[in-house]
Amino acid sequence: MEMSFFNIQDGLGEAFARNFRRGLLKAEDYQALSNCETLDDLKMALCNTGATPFQGDDPRDFGYKRWLEDWEPEVNPEGAVRELERQLNRGLCEQYEEFRTNSVGKQREFLEFLTHEYRIHNMMLLMKSAVKKSQHEMAHGEMSQEDKENIFREVKQLGLYAQHTAEIPDNDGGLQVLFATLQMADEDPAKMINTLIEKCEPIGKYFIEGFGEDDGSMICKGEDIREKDLDLIEGLVMRKYLQDFYDFCQTCGSTTSNVMTELLEFEADRRSIVRASNRCGTDGGDGGKMDIDMRRLDPDFGGLNSCYGEGFEAMTKLRGADEINRWLQDSEHGFAKTYGACVDVLHKQGDDALLEEVFLKYAVRMYELVFDEQFHYGVLYAALKLKEQEIRNLTWMAEMISTGNRAHIEKNVVHIFPEKPEFL
């Protein structure tokens, strides 16, 4: 019954997402791009349609010409790669807006949920900037251009939404809103934080400790923001967001529920494992408070949450990355073929590899498999995530070309829909 009526309201949005997949770069495309000797060559390859380095019977338009035709890497060589990344993300924002414009009802609400993660990132970026002032800011009372550029690079453009018009503003205008908010911190940090939380709906509720409870106390308050661990605050907020998103997906039909449950469970597990790996050797003991705080960062779902949260509990108690990796590879815990396989790949890549980077490859494989199912919203989520990975790939390649390290150009490229996937 669900499949019979899905296309009435939601078929167009899903069709856009599936067509979007066709424009993703293939392995042979990356091979052609790796032959580019300069950033101008890279621009020409990405902007041309039809008669391009991607010769053959597939003269595809990768959708980059509009955003890169004004990109002039020779004018500002030092900032060329950052400008490339910004322009590529502007194209991603436009694609998201196309998805959102052609959706209604639950599908539109689902797409709004996707932006919450980026808004939370931007809000936390503001908080960290307000707390950790640079020497220049303390001396002159305002941020230096370099500080602004650093924030500029970290801002997620999909999180630059106007709160009332629900439209993606021009990037510069959106950033000026962020910088104006930061200036409030000079006069009254408490007021800035409280105003930020109270007026930033729909994500403001995730900063309320009692969201879904009765006490209504806030996770963070302006008067004690400097004394709190901002990473802990971000973890608490993201837990509430993931839990809310998970609960919403359970109301979107059985197929969407099944697909998104698997994706969100992986996201919850990934955050817990990476957090535990990063924490090892930094908390200095078996202090109970640290364990309690870490467990509070995990939602009420996830593969690690099976058996009454045994996996999440283990992540708070294991000490050392090697101990965590052995636990994941142990078949008795049920993750040997999933996260244990990621650890196997990690060991094959050598000492310089990071588990978080391997998880990126595993996530890409999960997003690819989403397209095997039909009549669900998960393809919208997967399409945007895969495009984000493609942008990371192109940014890395541009960085290697600009620094003269073309020999390493394939090192961090994660191929999308390869003929022989690394994870089955």
State the gist of this model.
The chain has 19 helices and no strands.
What does this structure look like?
There is one protein chain. The chain is mostly helical. It has a domain at about 1-100 and about 380-424. It is about 60% helix and about 0% strand. The protein has helices at about 1-10, 10-20, 25-35, 40-45, 65-70, 80-100, 105-130, 135-140, 145-155, 170-185, 190-200, 230-250, 255-280, 290-295, 305-315, 320-330, 340-350, 355-370, 380-400. Residues about 50-55, about 160-175 and about 285-290 have low confidence and may be disordered.
Keywords:
about 425 residues, 19 helices, about 60% helix, single chain, mainly alpha, globular
> Could you give the order of the helices and strands?
HHHHHHHHHHHHHHHHHHH
Shape: globular
Structural class: mainly alpha
Q: How much helicity do the residues have?
A: 55-70%
Extract low-pLDDT stretches: 51-57, 162-173, 284-292
Number of strands: 0
Strand content: under 5%
**Number of helices in the DSSP assignment:** 19
Biggest β-sheet strands, sense, barrel: none
Radius of gyration: 22 Å
Distance between the termini: 31 Å
Mean pLDDT: 81
Q: Helices, strands, pairings?
A:
Layout: H1 2-9, H2 11-22, H3 27-33, H4 39-47, H5 65-68, H6 80-101, H7 105-131, H8 135-140, H9 145-154, H10 171-187, H11 189-199, H12 230-249, H13 254-279, H14 288-296, H15 306-317, H16 321-329, H17 339-349, H18 355-370, H19 378-402
